[in-house]
Structure formats: structure tokens, C-alpha cells
Amino acid sequence: MIKKNVAGVNDALKGVKDNMTFMLGGFGLSGIPENAIAELVRLNVKGVTCISNNAGVDDFGLGLLLQKKQIKKMISSYVGENEEFERQMLSGELEVELIPQGTLAERCRAAQAGFPAIYTPAGYGTEVAIGKETREFDGKMYVLEEAFKADFAFVKAWKGDLAGNLIFKGTARNFNPNMCGAATITVAEVEELVPIGELDPNQIHIPGIFVQRIFKGERYEKRIEQRTVRQRD
């Protein structure tokens, strides 16, 4: 079995260049590839296009790339809690393509499966459908949406093995699984990296065939966007 593990984040991001398109898993701050994002900041790549559900908050995650003006275009489902994202979008500094959340997920999954496009009813009759092919199926109208094309997909999993098999935990199982194998190179960072054969095959969410590089991440903060707790009695 082919081993996909690399020494660390530096080796995992070899080949990253300016003006590339990146997919980044996570939802806000849940399950984001913290180590890969930090390395992108360090590498200071410019003019990149990021496909991610949203950009989290100003001072963490993708917000760090936005602060340094490394991102040319964001393809997301909403702006989220990031004021800098909103400011750059409204000022015209940042190109933004807002996509219905389900469509965003399915365009990732189409790329993963090797489909060139999908038909979806989401957005028909709205600005989302302007300039796109539409078609009727069984009396209902659908919009043709093309699969994403990306150079790298950066995902974060709870546990993985040296062959790249992945297990996600809790809400980190959001956009991460759909982005595996949806780009030319998929890089997975994991909290626990174990030998081949240690994972229960019945528990694996993504098989290693969808992953090209895997490494053990370090120092996860796992921030919470909106902490809500019940007051003690």
C-alpha cells in the first residue's frame, strides 16, 4: 500500500504558487485546516482564489490571508463573521462569488466524482442563474452548475493513517469530505496519524485514494465563533 505521509506542513504544501485556486475545508472555524492556512500565510502566496464555505473571523484562519491581501477571489456561500471580508467585498478590493451552500457542496462533490457539471434547482429565477444554462426536468427548472477546478484541496480530519484514509469527527465532517479528491492535489492534516491497518475500515469516511499527502498537524486552537452557554443554576 502506498504511503502518503510527509514530514510536515512544509513538505505538504510543496508546489503551491501564486495565482492558484485552493479549496479549504471547514465551516467558519469548525474543522478548518489551521496548519495549512498558517503555512500559506508564511509562504505569502498572492493572487489566490479560495473556495471555502466562508472566511471565518478576521484574526484567524482565512481571515489572516485576507488581512495580508493574499486572496484575489473568494468563492463562498456567505460572508460570515469576517468584517475584513465584508469591507474588501464592498470596496471592490476583493472579487466575491456567493453561491447557495448546497450548490457549493455539490460542485465540490462533482469535481470529486469526476463529473463536469450538475443540475440544481437552487437559484433558478434569481441572479444566481444569470448567464447559465437552464433545463426542465419533469416540469421543474434546473440550473447547470460546473464542477470546481482547483489546484490544491486542504482538508482537516481527526484521524488518518499513512495511506491517507481519513476519519472526521463531529461538525468537522462538513465540507472536508466533499473536497477530498476534488482538486489536483489533496492535502490532509490530521490530529492523529496512525500506521496502516490501525483504523477500523468500517469507520473510515474517506479512503486514501482521494488523498495525495497527509501529515500530523500541531497546536490546534479549535476556536468557537459564537460561544453560547447556559448559565449555571
Main attributes?
233 residues, alpha/beta, 8-stranded mixed sheet, 3-stranded antiparallel sheet, 6 helices, globular
SSE map:
Layout: H1 9-12, E1 21-24, H2 34-43, E2 48-51, H3 62-67, E3 71-76, H4 83-91, E4 95-98, H5 101-113, E5 117-120, E6 134-137, E7 140-146, E8 152-161, E9 166-167, H6 176-179, E10 185-194, E11 213-216
Description of the molecule:
By secondary structure, the protein is α/β, with parallel strands linked by helices. Helix content is 20%, strand content 25%.
Structural class: alpha/beta
Distance between the termini: 55 Å
Provide the helix percentage: 10-25%
- Total beta strand runs: 11
Radius of gyration: 18 Å
Short description:
This protein is of the alpha/beta class. The protein has six helices and eleven strands.
